[in-house]
Amino acid sequence: MLNLNTIKGVIFDLDGTLVSSSLNFTQIRRDIGCPQHVDILSFIESLPEEEKVEAEDIVIQHELNDAGNAELLKNGKRMLDQVHAAQLPMAIVTRNCRRATYIKMANNHIDVPLVITREDAPAKPDPSALLDIAAQWGIPVENILYVGDYIYDQQAAERAGMKWVLVNSN
């Protein structure tokens, strides 16, 4: 149960927080030639333009394949319901591509009005998307809760000055 007493808005990660994901990051790295302990999106950014486009296409294909199988997590539904009942603004910030994000949301009936993907802002752990949402809502960052399942979520929230909760979908 989330304590929403001082919270005026909630931002969620998507994969592993609200919906399941079966993305195989080891395989994705292999497919694009990314070393195992290097961030995939950072690696792609470092590539020459032609290789970058090819690597992005491979990652998007993995994401789209995953999108059709993603299921709303029990805790994800509970958190969405609780925030909705508290009538707080909600947003999603994800490292996914826009197409995969909207497939996951549509298939799982997730009605969150503000969604930022990696095409819209620098990817987490960069805090830009979180700060943009705070500005849009006109809510001080210390009154916004960020909920995610990975270290990048924690890092983005801390860099933005937001409260954060790491969830474990397992």
Overview in brief:
This protein is α/β, with parallel strands linked by helices. The chain is built from seven helices and five strands; from the N terminus they run E-H-H-H-H-E-H-E-H-E-H-E. The longest helix is centred in the middle third of the chain and has 19 residues, at 49-67.
Fill in the keyword field for this structure.
alpha/beta, Rossmann fold, single chain, five-stranded parallel beta sheet, 2 domains, globular, 7 helices, 170 residues, 434 Repressor (Amino-terminal Domain)
- Give start-end ranges of low-pLDDT stretches: none
Number of helices: 7
CATH fold description of the largest domain: Rossmann fold
Q: Report the CATH architecture of the largest domain.
A: 3-Layer(aba) Sandwich
* SS strand fraction: 5-15%
Distance between the termini: 16 Å
Topology as H/E string?
Answer: EHHHHEHEHEHE
Radius of gyration: 16 Å
Total E-strand runs: 5
Biggest sheet strand line-up: 3-2-1-4-5
The main sheet comes to:
5 strands, parallel
Number of domains: 2
Quick one: CATH superfamily of the largest domain? Answer: HAD superfamily/HAD-like
Mean pLDDT: 95
Q: What is the CATH C-level name of the largest domain?
A: Alpha Beta
Indicate the percent of residues in helices: 40-55%
From the spread of the alpha carbons, the general shape counts as globular
